[in-house]
Amino acid sequence: MKKITLAGNCLTDVIKRIDNYPQKGMLCKIGEIIPGVGGSVPNSGITLKTLAPDQIEVTALSRIGRDDNGKFICSVFEKHGIRTDKLIVDPALPTSFTDVMTLPNGERTFFCAAAANAAFCEEDIDIDSLDCEIFHIGYLLLLDALDAPDKQYGTKMARLLKKVQEKGIKTSIDVVSAEGSRFSEVALPALKYCDYVVINEIEASRIAGIPLRVGDTLLKQNLQPVCEKLLAAGVKNTVVVHCPELGCALDAQGEFTVVPSLKLPKGYIVGSVGAGDAFCAGMLYSFLFGMNVRDGLRLASCTAACNLHVADSVSGAKSFADTIALEEQFGRGNLN
Length: 336
Fold this sequence. Notes:
Blueprint: E1 2-8, E2 11-18, E3 30-38, H1 40-51, E4 56-61, E5 63-65, H2 68-79, E6 88-90, E7 97-102, E8 108-113, H3 115-119, E9 134-140, H4 144-147, E10 149-150, E11 154-155, H5 156-166, E12 170-175, H6 183-191, E13 196-200, H7 201-208, E14 213-214, E15 217-218, H8 223-232, E16 238-243, E17 246-251, E18 256-260, H9 275-288, H10 293-308, H11 320-330
Parallel strand pairs: 1-4, 1-9, 2-7, 5-6, 9-12, 12-13, 13-16
Antiparallel strand pairs: 2-3, 7-8, 10-11, 14-15, 16-17, 17-18
Helix pairs in contact: 1-9, 5-6, 6-7, 7-8, 9-10, 10-11
């Protein structure tokens, strides 16, 4: 049984389907409201557990409120067989939540109340009791207490990751696509104590300071330099960057791998809430089971595609066999 702990953001999502995003001061109608769980811990954790329910033990480690939203999250975890004994129940702060505005083409905008997640801190994590092969935490830039400065390590997150590595546990991080200029300030210290990094092209570009898009055009020639800069910042094993067009990775041996996304038919995409977390879950699966990087990217693009076919962040998850079968069903795009 492979064991992984997923720590960090754990919240409820309220997905609201809209036809268009209004200009400032204007109104648009909400067509459908879909409640669900969200955040790095539920999104990646449920996908991982669904891929191989009898082969992976997933432990959730986060801070929730003593409220109905917190109870809802626990019930969803228990339904999927995810361990909840490490969850911290905050006596004062409410459970974090996000309003997700989703357009018909799958684009979404998030309005997040950090609440209990903002207080999640190093003291909530008993490192000596961690029983896992990989400790994955997300999202940097949305965990206020751990994003805070640390005189010795740069951030509290970096200090935490170093202690986890010292226990012989491999570490992995994810970052949120937030507005602002703190990407390098918060992420770079943490990279020194990461074995794996799985992030999207927006986040990678902002951390590295190298552009990856001009308008809607992906600057493919900059993907490897971005990965090289992140690896040089201290990542010990693999840097993975994903975007709608492809997934790519650079490992510690200097091998750069690119895998194009699936050719999904028109109308297939229902929403993209949690697609990045689903991709991340596919990569975490590959790290746990020692898959090569190319096969990991292939699986991750399929886990993301499963997610894109549903409106919420977790109900599209499938078994490993059903997930990888999407590759044969749809084929892949052309990198050129």
